[in-house]
């Protein structure tokens, strides 16, 4: 499965930013060893249900350490028996675009 998620603390730091807290969540994902990528809106992580959801929970916990309230947006593509879809889906799209 692939999960795309975005985490943000409800409270900002002294400068009004949230990047330090979000960085802690991304650090959790990267240290998990699961395939992942981060873009300007979401972090995508791929793996089995239990391992992906454990990473999401740990990322939420990391942000919660900096804020008493946390916002989480999560979207999942659940496709049993598939792996490598984090890049595979994009590769198939690019091939389809080239075919026009």
Automatic annotation (TrEMBL):
Coiled coil segments of this chain: none
Residues passing through the membrane, by range: none
Domain Thiamine-binding protein: 3-93
Source organism, top-level taxon: Bacteria
Recorded family membership: Belongs to the UPF0045 family.
Official protein name in the record: MTH1187 family thiamine-binding protein
């Amino acid at each position: 499965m692939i999960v795309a998620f975005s985490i943000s603390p409800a409270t900002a730091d002294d400068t009004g930013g949230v990047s330090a807290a979000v960085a802690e969540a991304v650090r959790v994902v990267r240290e998990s060893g699961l395939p992942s990528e981060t873009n300007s809106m979401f972090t995508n992580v791929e793996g089995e249900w239990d391992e992906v959801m454990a990473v999401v929970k740990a990322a939420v916990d990391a942000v919660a350490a900096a804020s008493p309230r946390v916002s989480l947006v999560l979207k999942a593509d659940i496709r049993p028996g598939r792996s490598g879809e984090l890049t595979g889906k994009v590769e198939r799209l690019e091939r389809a675009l080239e075919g026009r």
